[in-house]
């Protein structure tokens, strides 16, 4: 029996090499989705490129609240004109300091602005919403994301990424288990909260690893694909060589490793051997 899994490339719009690499893989049928950073200076130019693949891939918003400039003023969360690190945001969230009036106003406005930018330049609503560094899971952010999706889009038309994965599956996979379990714990309850608002979610989340360029990515992908489960989502971060990227993000070399493997014959053979097809979550 063939299982349909969503293979989603994050960070479209981060740099030319990231966007071009993702587009090449979608054209090749090696990805079934991508999530887009809409507050970057590259998004207005790169968004129209997606029109040719819009009928064969989920194309959504990669909400970005860390390490970059916001799409508009965020005096409480980005007083210097730039968001802080994911660690800073997590501390604020887990200590309840995102629930104050000023922070909530900043978050609500920024979520709306990034969705507006997606629609303005892609010419369509997103198929899904998720978060760069999983920020959409955080207390103080999660409810605002779900409310925005429920308010703006027809019921059931836009899904939200659920990063939950059973502990037994994470431990059996044996890939950066501590990090994967932390992310899964942050996602606890998201699917139920989304369902109450009529928002679909994926069922299972894989792809967490330390992005070390010396990791055996083909072996990791085999682990991420097992067990093959319908509607599971695997995140990847491919890119073509790109001098711009090195100045924007610490993850560089591993992206090229992923790009090379996902575009090659070995990956196609692995999908066939494991009885997996790549498909859109709702397509």
UniProtKB/TrEMBL annotation:
**One GO molecular-function annotation for this sequence?**
metal ion binding
Protein's name in the database: ChbG/HpnK family deacetylase
InterPro entries hit by this protein:
Glyco_hydro/deAcase_b/a-brl, YdjC-like
Q: Which cofactor does it need?
A: Mg(2+)
Q: Which UniProt keywords apply?
A: Carbohydrate metabolism, Hydrolase, Magnesium, Metal-binding
SUPFAM superfamilies annotated for this entry? Answer: Glycoside hydrolase/deacetylase (SSF88713)
UniProt source species? Nitrospirillum viridazoti CBAmc
One Gene Ontology BP term is: carbohydrate metabolic process
């Amino acid at each position: 029996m063939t299982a349909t899994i969503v293979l989603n490339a994050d960070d479209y719009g981060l740099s030319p090499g990231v966007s071009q690499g993702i587009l090449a893989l979608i054209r090749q049928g090696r990805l079934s989705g991508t999530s887009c950073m809409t507050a970057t200076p590259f998004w207005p130019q790169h968004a129209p490129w997606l029109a040719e693949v819009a009928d064969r891939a989920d194309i959504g918003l990669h909400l970005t609240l860390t390490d970059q400039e916001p799409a508009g003023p965020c005096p409480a969360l980005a007083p210097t004109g730039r968001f802080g690190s994911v660690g800073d945001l997590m501390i604020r969230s887990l200590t309840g300091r995102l629930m104050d009036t000023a922070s909530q106003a900043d978050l609500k406005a920024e979520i709306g602005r990034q969705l507006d930018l997606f629609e303005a330049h892609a010419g369509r609503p997103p198929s899904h919403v998720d978060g760069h560094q999983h920020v959409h899971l955080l207390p103080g952010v999660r409810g605002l994301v779900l409310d925005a999706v429920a308010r703006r889009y027809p019921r059931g038309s836009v899904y939200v990424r659920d990063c939950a994965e059973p502990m037994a599956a994470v431990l059996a996979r044996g890939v950066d288990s501590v990090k994967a379990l932390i992310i899964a714990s942050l996602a606890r309850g998201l699917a139920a909260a989304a369902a109450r608002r009529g928002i679909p979610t994926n069922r299972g989340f894989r792809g967490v690893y330390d992005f070390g360029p010396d990791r055996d990515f083909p072996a990791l992908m085999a682990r991420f694909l097992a067990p093959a489960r319908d509607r599971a989502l695997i995140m990847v971060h491919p890119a073509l060589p790109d001098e711009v990227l090195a100045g924007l993000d610490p993850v560089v070399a591993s992206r090229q490793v992923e790009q090379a493997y996902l575009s090659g014959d070995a990956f196609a053979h692995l999908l066939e051997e494991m009885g997996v097809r790549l498909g859109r979550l709702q397509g």
